[in-house]
Amino acid sequence: MTDEPGGGAFDKHRNLLFSVAYRVLGVAADAEDVVQDTWLKWSAADRSQVADPKSYLVRITTNLAMDRLRSAQTRRETYIGPWLPEPILTSTDAADDVATADTVSMGLLVVLETLTPLERAVFVLKEAFGFTYAEIAQAVERSEETVRQAAHRARGHVRARRPRFPTDRTRQRAVTERFLAAAAGGDINTLMQLLAPDVTLWTDGGGKVRQAIRPITGAQRVSTWFAAVAVQPYQGIEPVNMAIEVVELNGQVGLVFGDGGRIVATVTFDLNDDGVITGIHDVANPDKLRAVTARTVHHL
Which stretch is the leader sequence (predicted)? Predict the structure, then answer.
């Protein structure tokens, strides 16, 4: 892209464009497609008439992402089991800012699925990137009053479904490593201590691999499910061959399960302000593990 006229301006904002598209769509591959389509529109535009390349590019990306999300939401209605976002590896820099990291977390992306495309786009531009209402109105091609109303509705939905408990990276890692050690050792008692009584586990296999097709609730059931990893094959990998790596996923400390040759699942955690696990997202659909398998690290 960079060799063509206008490539410098586009590349300057490319990371922002992917970051916006991914938060709106929750799928890295779709976000990359949106960025590519944005480039095609940018390269065909009369850039001499573009006063603000950043605003112009964000407007194209946002509208393309909203259009794609409308189609995706229809397909997701027939998805087998819980639909979870596609996990991505993120940079440690993003995790230094807890608020920024939370805007790309699996837990929040799941909540954003309950919003309309417009509400989601407005929420992302306002909460994750700090755009003004006037700038957002230009980006989504709506009046400023419409944008303010959409932002109000979106914040209400998010607050109702996801109380915000900023968790520092040190605590995240400590809890994750304790959880990993307990699961690998089949230590149900320790797992129970780490889990909230009403913890929920969502597993996404997309009908392509064996996963629970309904959320699993309660500390006893969730701890038993993970303790089984120590004694039973998981996604075709025997316990003795299972390699579990602590990595940064979606701005948070998470786990990657594999056998050295392939990745079969990722796991991320929601923690409350006491560092207790309230939610777990387990993605094993092979189609959603491509970005992690490719080891592409995103700076969001």
Answer: none
